[in-house]
Amino acid sequence: MALTNLPSPEPDEVSAAFFEGLNAGVLKVQHCTACGTCDLARLYCGDCGSEALEWRPASGRGQIHAFVVMRMAYDPALAGEIPYVSGVVELEEGPRLFAQILGPGAVEVGQPVTLEFIRLADGAVVPGFRPYG
Hints:
By secondary structure, this protein is mainly beta. It has 1 helix and 8 strands, in the order αββββββββ. The chain is 6% helix and 38% strand. A hairpin with a 4-residue loop joins β5 (84-91) and β6 (96-101).
C-alpha cells in the first residue's frame, strides 16, 4: 500500500521541473549536454561543472541500492501505515533517489524495480517503486 498521508514536497526553482513531471505522469532526470552525466535536480553538472542541463524522461526502471523497514511512526500521519519500506533506488540512467518501496514480499539490495506514481492526499505526486522479477 502506498503512503498517501505523507506531507507534500515543497519544490524550489531547481526541483520544480522534476515535480511538474511527476504531476504529469513522467519521471524526469537532468542530462548534462556537455558530458552526458545524469542527475536529479542541480544547478550545474556534478561531474564537469557545466550549467548546460536539460530535463529528459527517464525509463522508470532501476534497482534497490539500500532500504529500511520502518516499524515505528516518526510522523503521526503514518501511524496506521507501519510497517512500510523506504529505500534508495538507483535508476537505469544513474541517479539515485529516495522513495517508498511498494508491495508485499521480500525486498533485497540489487532487486529490480519499476516506477509507480503515488498520489498524495492533497493531490501532489511522488515516485514509488515496486520490485519485480
